[in-house]
Write a structure and sequence with these properties.
Elements lengths: L6 H31 L3 H28 L2 H22 L7 H26 L5 H28 L5 H21 L15 H7 L5 H30 L2 H25 L5 H14 L10 H30 L3 H5 L1 H29 L3 H12 L1 H17 L1
Protein name: MFS transporter
Pfam families: MFS_1 (PF07690)
Organism: Paenibacillus yonginensis
Length: 399
């Protein structure tokens, strides 16, 4: 029977909601802002590469701070650095395209700091009996933010001249990050336990019979798709419409669908259904890429986006819950939760980097619509491969 969420879990969801809302307001249009200054697919790709490199390194390096010192301070620093990033973008304006690498490294470090601390605290305030419920609420809140944030940003930007709308939205994000920092002070300081083991992720992968060996490949294939989809879909929608409010409308519709499906999956997707649920989700995520063979017009992109939003929870909730369950499989693994969280993120990072580098290489030869379409379809099948590597662990949770 599922347990209810306690006050600390609810407060953690609130901090997450503010962080995600701020990202939804500005993050959706950040790449569009850069694209309008310099229409270069490779530039956007390298910006994302710099973020992922910093994200992975920050997880690994900050792991010592999170495990041996105050992880809540790490969460606050990550939030504050996110605000600093948007402040620098505001100051740079259109010249931001010439500082892709330092800006990307800063944003990646900010995200790495926040999400490492957040994920570790999530593990500590949840257990297998309420983890699916918590992850369902995470998805639900993310969907609400995805509805409100991009729609509002698109509406504001489309009604203001030049880049005034972008400046207003980036400023608003800066303020919300500040509010999130204030909220974080109401979270209890977590107990510290043990010393950080720098080489633990590698040792875990080398350990004979470790379930993380297969999970590492599953996470890498998840990242392979995520790395490119995180920015390319937004660019395609903007290119197809040339209107920010249409991009906001796209996010509104897809997030509204995601809101309902994350709520339903969080409520009814019990551990015994993870095996079949994740397989169905992976197959449908791949299947909904096929309409793009028709065209890359707004209508087809909306069909694809709606389908992904509807079935992504079937894939993501089991993936997140199973890897978190691996961290709590024994007292030893629970004590190594920070190192295992670092391992999880490094696997995702490797997959994302591989996907983005593939994107940069392919589009350096041809950026024709047909090339982009086949790249998206090919990457769309990565979740199926991810399920293949995770299926053994999924069967264990179903028993």
């Amino acid at each position: 029977m599922k347990k209810a969420l306690d006050r600390q879990s609810i407060l953690l969801l609130a901090v997450n909601g503010l962080f995600v809302l701020s990202g939804a307001l500005s993050g959706t249009f950040l790449n569009v802002f850069l694209w309008k200054s310099k229409q270069d697919y490779a530039m956007i790709g390298w910006f994302t590469v710099s973020q992922q490199i910093a994200l992975g390194l920050t997880f690994w390096i900050a792991g010592k701070w999170v495990k041996e010192h105050n992880k809540m301070n790490a969460l606050r620093v990550g939030t504050a650095l996110s605000g600093l990033f948007y402040l620098l973008v505001l100051l740079a304006g259109k010249a931001a395209v010439w500082y892709i690498w330092p800006l990307g490294l800063l944003l990646g470090a900010a995200l790495g700091m926040f999400w490492l601390a957040f994920n570790v605290v999530t593990f500590e305030v949840t257990d297998p009996d309420n983890r699916d419920l918590f992850n369902g609420w995470l998805g639900l809140i993310g969907s609400v933010c995805g509805i409100v944030g991009p729609w509002f940003s698109g509406w504001v930007i489309s009604r203001m001249q030049d880049n005034e709308g972008y400046r207003l939205i980036f400023t608003l994000s800066l303020v919300i990050y500040g509010i999130a920092v204030v909220f974080s002070f109401f979270l209890n300081k977590r107990k510290l336990k043990g010393h950080y083991q720098w080489s633990a992720p590698i040792r875990e992968l080398r350990r004979p019979g470790s379930p993380w060996r297969r999970a590492a490949f599953g996470l890498a294939f998840q990242g392979l798709r995520e790395g490119v989809y995180s920015f390319l879909i937004v660019l395609l929608v903007y290119e197809a419409t040339q209107q920010e409010w249409k991009l906001g409308q796209f996010s509104l519709i897809t997030s509204a669908v995601s809101l309902v499906t994350f709520w339903a999956a969080g409520k009814w997707l019990k551990p015994r259904y993870r095996y079949a649920g994740m397989l169905i989700g992976a197959l449908l995520l791949a299947g909904f890429m096929v309409p793009l063979l028709g065209s890359l017009q707004y209508g087809m992109l909306l069909v694809m986006g709606t389908g992904i939003a509807a079935f992504l929870p079937l894939y993501m909730i089991p993936m997140v819950s199973v890897t978190f369950d691996l961290m709590g499989a024994s007292e030893e693994s629970a004590n190594s939760r920070v190192e295992l969280m670092v391992l999880r993120e490094l696997c995702l990072m490797c997959g994302r980097l591989a996907g983005i580098l593939l994107y940069v290489v392919v589009l350096s030869f041809s950026d024709a619509p047909r090339t982009v379409t086949w790249l998206l379809i090919g990457l769309g099948f990565a979740p199926v491969l991810g399920w293949l590597f995770m299926r053994k662990q999924l069967k264990k949770t179903a028993s």
